Amino acid sequence: MNCPETSAIIRKQIAIRKYLCSTEQEEVSEIIVGLSAQQKYIPSKFFYDANGSKLFEDITCLPEYYPTRTEKALLKEIAPQISKAFRNIDIVELGSGDCSKISILLDAIPFENMATVRYIPVDVSHAAISKSARILVERFPEITVHGLLADFLKHLSVIPKETKRLFCFFGSTLGNLTRKQSVQFLLDLKAVMKPGDQLLIGLDMVKDIKVLENAYNDNQGVTAAFNKNILSSVNQYIKTEFSPDWFEHVAFYNQSKDRIEMHLRALKDLEISCMYLQDNIRIKKGETILTENSHKYTRRHIFDFACITGLKINAVYTDNNQWFSLVHLNYLIGSQDSQ
Ligand code: AVJ
Prior knowledge:
Elements: H1 4-13, E1 14-18, H2 25-36, H3 50-60, H4 67-83, E2 89-94, H5 100-107, E3 117-123, H6 126-139, E4 144-149, E5 164-169, H7 179-192, E6 198-204, H8 209-215, H9 222-238, E7 247-254, E8 259-266, E9 270-272, E10 281-283, E11 288-295, H10 299-309, E12 312-318, E13 324-330
Parallel strand pairs: 1-4, 2-3, 2-5, 3-4, 5-6
Antiparallel strand pairs: 6-13, 7-8, 8-11, 9-10, 12-13
Bound molecules: N,N,N-trimethyl-histidine.
């Protein structure tokens, strides 16, 4: 498999463009701002260093963590319907991570159309993009991969526009944004979409609180380890010495806001020095740092999103328990005028 011809072909099929700036200044200030707020917080994207990405993969296999498994099964079910018409299309995946979800969709594309399909993963992790690009071109030799090393919250404008596109936003990643932020994000996304483009978005639904809370409080403590691991990411960026042992993992459902909140709760009074701050960071025993919001949705939210963006709901697919939904939206010709 490793002969030079093969790798030459693979190289031709894969291009990766980088749009992230190399300085870490922005990240440093995002963390500092969060730790200086009244309710201290750390932006959730800092979960995903190498160790955190691995722990997240472990989470997706936990018996309590239903979302990934449910979404994949659903995707497998609907893929033939959605993919049969794919020809001359760019499939853009926002926050692509490993390529396991997109593979399910690609698997259902008729073979004769495969060479007209380009896959555009957008992710902040170079490792994730290059690894998944390699796996995909091995598995689908006809396809072209055009990776974008970018933050989809900031760099939507760098996504190629020449061809009609399907935007995929799986995993209920939208749930990390507050309601206000998610509406703004969908409006930003709509603003780069053109008539003929489509959006396929995965959303975790409101359900029995026990099921929700168990999914974020697993028996093996993997979610707790994932939560505490964010501190090592913080230590890297702002050169602090937070210890995971000073905190306990807390995750609960906030019913008034339809979201799981994950926090790190201080087990004792803490004072942490940081070269970027004049004063020490002070945390009282029992005080928490919010590390993640994971919003859950109802049909009402889905219809509101469609209404606000002016995108047309083609279908809302859901599993028998209605635990997870895949929403397929179209940008219809003329729908930019109908708002
Ligand atoms: C990747 C943001 C969808 O909110 O369920 C899993 C991350 N956090 N367990 C989620 C997560 C704790 C996950 N998302």
